[in-house]
Predict the structure of Inorganic triphosphatase.
Amino acid sequence: MAIERELKLALPGDLPASRVNALIAHLDRLPGAEARGERHLVNRYFDTPDLALARAKAALRLRFVARDGHPGQWLQTLKSVGEARNGLHVRHEWEQAVHGEALELGPLIAACDMPATAALLRDEGTRVVAQFETNFVRRLWRYIAGDGTAVEIAFDRGEVAVEAAGVRHTEPLMEVELELLDAPDDDRSAQGERILNALAQDLRTVLPELHADDVSKAQRGYRLRQKVLGG
């Protein structure tokens, strides 16, 4: 099991291209940051018809990752109960490669070491169906602080989508995610979180529109689903 710690910063979906370019240029010049290129991510979120996973604050995702010059890869991810405060998201996460465009729940259940979450997926897994998608281009940087703390900086730009009665309904998605990858002493002193917040403040000097966001991409999808389907 991994504990995911990331600071999420949202931007208006209609942000002008010049402002986006200013952010990218700032990150390209940021001392300690190394550009890691772009990825195209297609994400399908699954739940039961009565949204049993959402009620248990769990998220089940199938993701295709593509980048230039490399074959794409399918990944399945389970995220369980966590917390979000002032944009900082802390969650349990299990991620595995799969052979193709389909969930492989057996290995995911076996890997999940939270009994309640594993039982939920075991009991409800046969009923899950795709509920919505998030599709976006992710631009990446790896940042290393002076004490060795490693952070992945991701700029995501795309859409959340729900299909109903043959019509695709979308909302824009634009976010910056600062994910703590590694920190001395497993971040027991919370220095890693302080570095995430310092990075966020630095980015706000370029784009004051950036604001901490406690809403995950999965929650955005469920909200759009409710708006479109009414439940």
About this structure: The longest helix spans residues 191-204.
